[in-house]
Design a protein that fits this description.
It is a single chain. Helices cover 40% and strands 14% of the residues. The chain has 443 residues and is α/β, with parallel strands linked by helices. A hairpin with a 2-residue loop joins β6 (199-206) and β7. α2 (37-44) crosses α3, α4 crosses α12 (326-337) and α8 (212-220) packs parallel to α9 (242-253). The longest helix has 21 residues, at 343-363.
Length: 443
């Protein structure tokens, strides 16, 4: 069953650690079945309860999954395994359009903002016990949220969107709870949820966001939380429209106990209006990251939500890192105050690149999606083959397996740095790699 690999250990912790190490090292592969608990117990000379405890630990850590009589197997995307195994190796001479990064040329210079923040810190050093959130950053963040119709709520600051989402999930849910997530969706989130010992329920998306019927079914089946990307959805570029927001709010109105988390990581790179769902349930949170507009290395996001949720997040944060650097917070506040990013120009630049590629693909009979943000999603029938043929043609794209659970295959192309003269060549390569055009969507 395990080929050449033999699980080792006498204690539950040792058995679990051995399996996790083997998965991380590639000795146990995604989808590989594990021995029945009694069989492994006999092999190791331990009590079956010891193996049961080890398997339970591995399930809670997102390494394995159990499906009744079909037994236990390594998850298709085990949380202990780095996502590099799904990435494409970018050889010399291959153009990389897979990474999902913003265009460095559209990021603002940070030197002056950090120098000013550091000088303020020299005059008034931040010491233990002071407020975790810079007052000016909180004021600016709250003003922007108010302008976008986000309900009133306190503000916390986290080390990026994923940190915020993890903290909100952790203070509300327990191991074994189910989270409804977009499919295709953000790969890091799809890995985070099982790593927290939670289960995922895939929800289909189209260009206007999560499908209301799919959300309703997931919640009816017991999902306790829902994560929605408001704009610049990764990987499809979906953005929640006003009509879709009304439909989703109606669904959530019937499930008021749902934990709602909204990710607005497209803030300041998308000119489409925000149509928030916040307030449709009792427990909610909305997070805005500075990564795409101001630079991933800032590692800063602002989080708002109902008072109880934000209070829990702040309290748990104090027991860990304590706070996000106030120097970084002040620098971001200055960038916001000074309008360091021209939202209209930046969103227009990304929009031109997306539309140019989508249009060029359409003229070659290839259907693609990308309503907002940095990426274009292309449904394909043979994902592995398409990726390999594109690499041979000199283009590294992201395989859709990094972003999907039960959704049909696809590939993601990041257009952030795509030059006008490259569009036609890339479209030709995609059309050639796909062969006869497929009209499949991603729902």
């Amino acid at each position: 069953m395990l080929g050449e690999y033999r699980i080792q250990g006498r204690r539950a912790a040792d058995i679990a650690a051995d399996v996790e190490r083997a998965v991380a090292d590639g000795e146990l592969c995604p989808g590989q079945p594990l021995p029945p608990m009694r069989e492994l117990a006999v092999s190791l000379g331990v009590n079956p309860n010891t193996v049961a405890a080890a398997y339970r630990t591995l399930r809670e850590r997102g390494v394995i999954e159990t499906a009744g009589r079909r037994g236990s197997r390594v998850r298709a995307r085990p949380a202990t395994t780095g996502r590099e195994y799904l990435a494409v190796e970018v050889r010399e001479g291959v153009r990389d359009v897979s990474a999902g990064n913003p265009d460095p040329a559209l990021l603002p210079p940070l030197g002056a903002a950090f120098a000013s923040a550091a000088a303020q810190g020299d005059r008034h050093p931040v010491l233990y016990g002071e407020a975790a959130v810079d007052p000016e950053l909180a004021r600016l963040a709250r003003a922007g949220l108010d302008a976008d119709g986000v309900p009133d709520g306190p503000v916390a600051v986290t080390s990026g969107s994923l940190d915020a989402i993890e903290r909100v999930l952790a203070v509300h849910l327990r191991a074994g709870d189910t989270v409804a997530v977009e499919d295709p969706g953000w790969g890091s989130l799809l890995d985070l949820i099982p790593a927290l010992g939670l289960r995922t329920a895939p929800v289909g998306v189209d260009d206007e966001g999560p499908l209301p019927g799919a959300v309703r079914r997931a919640l009816a089946a017991g999902a306790r939380a829902l994560v929605v990307t408001d704009r610049a959805q990764n990987p499809t570029g979906a953005a929640v429209s006003a009509a879709r927001a009304r439909e989703l709010r109606a669904v959530l109105h019937d499930c008021p106990g749902t934990l709602l988390i909204e990710d607005d990581h497209g803030h300041h790179i998308v000119d489409l209006p925000l149509h928030p769902l916040a307030g449709a349930t009792r427990d909610w949170a909305l997070v805005r990251s500075a990564a795409k507009a101001y630079g991933p290395d800032l590692r800063l996001a602002v989080l708002t939500g109902d008072a109880a949720t934000v209070d829990r997040v702040r309290g748990r944060q104090l027991l860990g890192p304590g706070w996000v650097s106030r120097i970084t917070q002040r620098a971001v506040a200055r960038l916001w105050e000074e309008g360091a990013v021209d939202v209209r120009d930046v969103s227009a630049a990304y929009g031109r690149r997306r539309e140019a590629l989508i249009g060029a693909l359409a003229r070659r009979g290839v259907r693609a999606h990308g309503r907002s943000g940095l990426n274009v999603w292309i449904p394909v029938s043979d994902e592995t083959g398409a990726v390999a043929r594109l690499v041979q043609a000199g283009w590294a794209v992201a395989p859709g397996a990094r972003f999907r659970m039960s959704a049909p295959p696809g590939i993601r192309i990041t257009v952030a740095t795509l030059a006008e003269h490259e569009v036609g060549t890339l479209a030709d390569a995609v059309a050639e790699a796909l062969g006869p055009s497929t009209a499949r969507g991603y729902v």
